[in-house]
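Cross-check.
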Amino acid sequence: MAEFRRDVLTGNWVVVGFKRKETRNTGVCPFCPGNEHLTPSSIREMRDGQGLWLSRCFSAANPVFQIEVSENKRAEGFYDKMGTLGAHEIIVEDRSHKKTFSTFELSDVARVVDMYAERICDLKKDRRFRYIQVFKNHGEIAGSFLFHPHSHVLATPIVPHQLSLELTNSKNHYLQKERCLLCDVVSQEIRQHSRVVTVTDHFLVVCPFASRLAFEVWIVPRRHNPSFESWLHEAVRRDFIEVYLDTMRRIERLRGSYSIVIHTSPNRVTQYFGEQDLQIDDYFHWHVEILPRDPSSSTYKREDEFYTVSLMPEEAAAMLKGEES
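Predicted model, tokenized:
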């Protein structure tokens, strides 16, 4: 049975003992229309006027995180571990196998964005989940081996380590200056303008000051808002859809592989981050990070990823001792 174990030096949580199921490559895409029987049943579908699905969401066939698993927090001496409680869902973004994001219409992007928001809102209703992560990988370098356009939704009882660092830095900035960190970033980038890709009424698209990858861009709301799934008004949603599509067309002209990660606020109903005098809504600012890939950058680890090891350390130690004897 797989389980979460906490690294006492870094605070990272690692999944150990997860066995990946071997899947035979039959050359048939399980996400294409007519092959719905090759995937779990749909959690949510968006359909056209003829009743055909345009986008669908379902549980991953071999998820690391499972809703039916107990959190079961426990100790082993002073070490911490727990069950791999969570959820892993797949969103098939379009019926067409051959489309990429840059070839979507605005209506296609709107449908996908609405599906993202729906799934985040629904999973946040579960008080056991502290963070909902939406991400998309396109291309083998980014770790995707199915070309059909799709995204992932992860719900976990812990916040990914990189996101925790972002929360901590944002909180410290607010405590020191009583201002949101990303609001300050937006103001400075618009003033300097040297790293700006696009500015609209509601959004800034910028290559970050300390870019980790060539052509990395962030899409950031110009006005403070902690949650991707909570649109302040319809004009903001429409603007984001147009900006998102325009940005992806720019990216796909330069890179064939990329990762997209939506940074939204942690689940407030858990009260895990609750404080009497400071609320996470005050200092956290949602944004989208787009990370283009090339062979020289393929080792970059995204914040949506958890280290997942099939071999338990106890088994590994026994094997290593056996080799020594």
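The chain has a mean pLDDT of 87. The first strand starts at residue 3 and ends at 6. Passed to J.P. for a second look.
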